[in-house]
Amino acid sequence: MVCLGIETSCDETALALVSGKKILSQSLYSQVATHGLFGGVVPEIASREHYTALETLIEELFTASSACFDDITSIAVSRGPGLLGSLLVGIAFAKALHFSLDKPLLGINHLHAHILVNNIENTILYPALAILVSGGHTHIYYVTSPLQFTLLGYTLDDAVGEVYDKVGKMMGMPYPSGKLIDLCSQKITARHNTFTAPYIHNSSLNYSFSGLKTSAMHYIQKNPDCCISSKKEEDFLNNQHVQQLCADLAYTISHTLANKFVLAYKHCKENAMPVHSFLLAGGVASNTSLRSVLHNISMQYTIPLLYPSMPLCTDNAIMVAYTGDLLHSQYGYYHTATLSAIPRGQHIPNDYILQRV
Ligand code: KG4
Ligand code: ZN
Fold it and tell me: Which residues contact 293 (CB under 8 A, 6 or more apart)?
């Protein structure tokens, strides 16, 4: 069984061939340099870049692998959430291959794929409590199987990656700035109480980060030494004011995320919902401070914490192909060619069709 995965939901164009837990080949084109010129993703440019990149990427994919088109047994594509135009480019590409190769098509929930990719390098123990932290989402899910995701908490305003990127932008950092903020924060050992954790003194399992973003903005206005116009990474890395702000921001974000995650765990315990593993996923899952804080929680409650290696945290097609292969080969699911794209903010139904044997 070989699944071809297609990922075009935002600003990475990616293809992968996966068989079970084995990654046969992958090709990825990051549009970051293009969008960086505008300080964030420009949807129309993203769609056009996906459209032009796919042809080269499919050639690269097969050049790097001994597999050929005939080996493909299913085609999986991110169907949402994401930018509508970008999703449509990937879905049109997937449908063209579905018709020409006569292989089953699967539309994958991009958020579920971020979480399920944890199973490639580790083994997810179900039921699991998962936290998905990315540029567009901050979700806590109770996951009982690769198909059963119950949303327990989410952000009421900004996603956590958005906070990193917007605060980075205020300091003059290139887009996206989460990774650079992480690197700067690691240079500091003595933390200051610059920020207070937002929206934690309540029993809600939801997050709210807009207040923290505003606090960071006021702090930067009062401390202009944190702003650097050169856009050079080393200038940020070597600036003590930047280092301190990044360390304090990363600490506050990680502890805010952990606070509600623990609350969600307690909610599960109180409601007879067993938890056998903790899962961390999404671009921000590569954050050093967050990994360390959740690691301590995992030790405290003696529940294993799983997170993917760095390249599998950010958007990639391996997670899409892995999920597609799993749902098709183990569950017998597929979609018809009426598969639609579902943009951010809309419900993604579990509308797979069960294959007759
Ligand atoms: O999952 P992802 O690749 O794309 C979305 O689906 O949104 O996540 C991208 C986000 C960006 O906001 C980026 O700044 C953030 O992940 N990010 C990080 C780190 N690496 C990437 N944030 C904090 N620390 C990092 N090490
Ligand atoms: Zn993503």
Answer: 254, 255, 257, 258
Q: Does the C-beta of 185 come closer than 6 Å to ligand 1?
A: no
Residue 324 CB less than 6 A away from ligand 1:
no
CA of residue 348 to ligand 2 center, whole Å: 15
Q: Which stretch of DSSP H or E encloses residue 294?
A: helix 288-300
Residue nearest to atom 16 of ligand 1 (CA): 283
Using most ligand atoms within 8 A of CB, pick from 314, 318, 319, 344 the residue to mutate for ligand 1: 314
pLDDT in tens, the chain (357 residues): 999 999 999 999 999 999 999 999 999 999 999 999 998 999 999 999 999 999 999 999 999 999 999 999 999 999 999 999 999 999 999 999 999 999 999 999 999 999 999 999 999 999 999 999 999 999 999 999 999 999 999 999 999 999 999 999 999 999 999 999 999 999 998 889 999 999 999 999 999 999 999 999 999 999 999 999 998 999 999 999 999 999 999 999 999 999 999 999 999 999 999 999 999 999 999 999 999 999 999 999 999 999 999 999 999 999 999 999 999 999 999 999 999 999 999 999 989 999 754
pTM of the model: 0.96
Ligand nearest to the CA of 314: 1
Tokens found for residue 271 = 């409601």
Cβ–Cβ under 8 Å, residues 342 and 79: yes
Query: Coil, strand, or helix at residue 86?
Result: helix
* 284 within ligand 1 shell (Cβ under 6 A): yes
Cβ–ligand 1 contact at 74 (below 6 Å): no
**Peptide bond before 174: cis, by omega within 30 degrees of 0?**
no
